[in-house]
C-alpha cells in the first residue's frame, strides 16, 4: 500500500486533473472538431446560429 | 445487432489444450448464434417506445448547428424555461464523431460539465468514458467502461468513481450470451465498495427472447432480493410499435409495482408516443417535423389520481453550416465509406 504522503500527492494530482478537465473538455472538443471537420468552418459559425 | 459471424478463434497448435479449444471454438462458430447486444441495450427498444425519457414540461428550444457531416461535428444550444420541476437552464453541447472516436461535451449555465468519450480500438472492443463535473464538490462522477462484442456474447466492465489508492467505487461486470438463435441469458454483477472495508455484491440475472422474425422482444431482469423487471416490445408494422413494462419489488420491507403500456407511431413527418401508467398517468408526446430544419415538440401528462397536468412545448431548429453542394459531397463520401468498411457502434 502506498504511504500517506503518496496518497496525499495522488489526491492532489487528481484534484488538479479534475479542474483541468472541467475547464478544458469543451474547448478540446471544439478544437478537434474545428481542425478536423471537412470544410473547415470559420469561428463565427460557432457562436451565431444564423451564420 | 444480430449478425452471425462464424469466425472461430483458433489457437496455435503448440499450446496445450489447443486442439480441444479449437474443436470447441469450431462447434460454437457452426452454431451460428447471433450477437445478443449489450446489457445496457437490453431494453433499448422499450425505452425508445416509452416516453419516460423524452417527456418534459415548460418551454424548450434546441438550436443545433452542424458544421460537418463526415467527421460529425455539431454544436447545440438548448434553452429550457417554465418547468415546474426544473429551474430555467441553458445548455451548450458539442459532439464530434468519427469512425472510431466519439466525443460529446455539454456545459450548463451553472458551469456543470458533462463529458462522454467512446473510443473503438477495433470493431469489437470499445472503451467508454463518462464524466459529470460540477461546481459543488460532492457531485462529481467518472465512469469508465470497456465493452467487448464476441461473436455470440457480450462482456462489459464498468467502474464508477474508482479511487486509485484504496480502490473504492462501484464496479459492474455484465455478460450476456446467446443460448439459442432466439434466447440470450446473462448476468450483471454490481460490486459496491464505498469504503475500503465495506463491500457488497449484488447479482442480477437477465434473459432476452427475440422472435425469429425480429418482430418482438421479451426481456426479464431479476434480482434475488425480490426485484423483477419484465418488458415486452412488439413491432406491429413499420410505423407502429408497442411496448409494455412491469417493475415489481417484493422485498419484505417494501412491496411496489409499476406497469407501463406505451405505443409509438412513426409517421412520415412526425412521431407520436402515447403511454398509460399504473399510477394513473396518461402521457403523450408529439414530435412534428415541418421542414428538414424545424421540428416542433409537444408533451403532455395528466395524473388522474392527483388531478394534475404538465404540458411542455418545444422547438428544435437544426441548421447546417454547409452549403448544398458541400452537404451532397459529404453524404456521398459517407455512403462510400459505409460500403467499404464497417462502423463500430459508438453508443
Q: What report would you give on this structure?
A:
The complex is a heterodimer of chains A (51) and B (347). By secondary structure, chain A is mostly helical. Chain A has a domain at 18-50. Helices cover 73% and strands 0% of the residues of chain A. Chain A has two helices and no strands. Chain A has helices at residues 4-36, 44-47. The radius of gyration of chain A is 19 Å and the shape is rod-shaped. Chain A starts with a helix and ends with a helix. The relative contact order of chain A is 0.08. Chain B has a 19-stranded mixed beta barrel. The relative contact order of chain B is 0.14. With 347 residues, chain B is mostly beta strands. The longest helix of chain B is centred in the C-terminal third of the chain and has 17 residues, at 324-340. Chain B has a single domain, classed as Porin. In chain B, a hairpin with a 5-residue loop joins strand 11 and strand 12. Classes of the chains: A mainly alpha (51), B mainly beta (347). Chains A and B meet through helix 1 of A and strand 1, strand 2, strand 3, strand 4 and helix 3 of B.
